[in-house]
Amino acid sequence: MLAPTDVDASGDRFTATYLVDPALGAVGDVARWMAGEMTVEFPLDLIDPDDGIGTHVVGRVEAVEPVGGRHRVVISVADEVVSGSMTQLLSVVWGNVSLGRGVDLVDLTPPAGWTAPVRHNGPRGLAAFRALADAPTRPLLMSAIKPLGLPVDRLAAMAHELAAGGLDVVKEDQSLADQPWAPFDERIGPIAQAIRDANDRNGTRAVYAPSLNGPVADLPRRAAAARDAGAGAVMVQPGISGYPAIEAAATAGLPVIAHPGGFGGLSDRVAPALVHGLLPRMAGADCSVFIVPGGRFPIEEADALATVDACLRPSGDLPAIMAAAGGGVSVERVPQLRGTYGDDICLLIGGDLHRDGDPRRRASLLREAAER
Amino acid sequence: MLAPTDVDASGDRFTATYLVDPALGAVGDVARWMAGEMTVEFPLDLIDPDDGIGTHVVGRVEAVEPVGGRHRVVISVADEVVSGSMTQLLSVVWGNVSLGRGVDLVDLTPPAGWTAPVRHNGPRGLAAFRALADAPTRPLLMSAIKPLGLPVDRLAAMAHELAAGGLDVVKEDQSLADQPWAPFDERIGPIAQAIRDANDRNGTRAVYAPSLNGPVADLPRRAAAARDAGAGAVMVQPGISGYPAIEAAATAGLPVIAHPGGFGGLSDRVAPALVHGLLPRMAGADCSVFIVPGGRFPIEEADALATVDACLRPSGDLPAIMAAAGGGVSVERVPQLRGTYGDDICLLIGGDLHRDGDPRRRASLLREAAER
In this protein, which residues make up the domain named Ribulose bisphosphate carboxylase large subunit C-terminal (chains A, B) (predicted)? Predict the structure, then answer.
């Protein structure tokens, strides 16, 4: 037995909810194993349950009940165990537990007083983008400059056209990293200038969002360089660089867009509404791109709706963030998408804007459909 | 059609191999869709295949063949598309493609001349740990100080005992982040000192490896603080902080240990030998902890053996790295584990060392079993 300890804690606790396969064994034992694995990863029979560590540090099984052939298990953990750290929160709720097959994470309540790890000055989340676009109620609009391989002048010209067409956010495709055809430091200035020119000539307010794919230690520098070049937002892929990279990308003070690339394996085991909604929001993202049914990727409509809800629903001090629907959006689908998701949404259109060789015209049609 | 482009590339290409579910449709169409999604994410019918982008940037389907009810699809991509960046490599091979259910990544060849993103001075990988331990041939030995909740003096005392017992690496449990019970900056000095004292008194050479769970932008600072306090290695969880965090943790020049927490969803869709072996190795890890059959987590023996091979097998300029077997290692299992995995392995024992209340004695028994 571990010698007695004198650990104290505030009593504030958060909860994580799992669905557990009955084949893993007696659900009470599995739940206690999970609670230990999440927190102390130490033989529980060596810890006195009435001791400081047993009382305050080991996770507590709050509920076990059958749900549709599986068991719903709710485990609470002292807020001090994560101490406001996104990294540690993820490590607790999806670290070792993830390695046990048949255990899926389906819900999560943020610790008390959880605020995004990085505080911007001014508006954040959906409000930040609405303010930038001067669009208080309509759906916001986003597209990407691409394909990878275009030189800087062609990317800049495309950005100009998309901005002139009235899009709110002109982001870089996530494929744009630091390739020789358009290196990051060489392209951000000309592209930012092209968008500024389009805005000046057309009275538009397009925001430029470069892709920050690169070493995570370089994210603060790249985000600052983007800001100094005139970008209004930045984009990272937390499915590649980890949710904690959102915080690093936010240090320059620009809103952060989270792209869903790389989340395929995770979203098979963790509810899509958490993967694409609550977790990026808790990590400090201001916008999260998710995929909609009817496009290039498979997703259930219920999961898409729950993702939008997880971005918008009031939750402690977390700002509502912009859920950006992508992966299958076209100009023609706008009325249907507005009907399904409401107007507190961003519509992200990629290849469809290039279909007839005049992306500016298609962007204008998109803007009209959003203002209708 | 996209206006003609004048893109050039070296001709050096790397390959990614997938297994694709036939239910997704005609496999040739699916493979071409994947090749586009990985690189340009642009309607392929708008790109002239003989054009610069069509020739050099769009992924190329190299092979399609049936394998056990699925299709094996090999896709090659120009090295310039990733340009030496781990982030971009992952984005290409497992970004948007991951979002298509029924597509699993099973193999990968590193781009030509791929070296770990961060170069240390002196030995790296397995060789670095063998040099630190002065153990040229025997299995290396690792354990963790835990549980979370212990104050600094108790953690330091435990580290002293484990070092005195003859372990090569005394790491912190991944649960140790920056909690109030033992904050990072307050604990690393006393724990390093306790291990130094044990080494001085007993002629041992234990290396201290603190857990760097925290904001990724803070990883270089924490790694440097660990080094300055006397740590000999550091540990991160790429399943939580992303593979690119390994590079950030390596900037202080210490060997990096990758812990497998959070990889559960990923390893359902990406071969475990890539998840726990080749990818951390390519990202710059010097040691990767993987789980072995017969313990607390489910894994196939073939996957465990393939993981060790992916850590050790000669591959370009990549150093062989230390595969650390965990999740179910006991003193009694040492002969069996050596028989299965050979002696180029690290044995990571957690709770089992604390079973009889004298971790130093159990550590000594472990060391004896490794030297036999």
Answer: 134-252
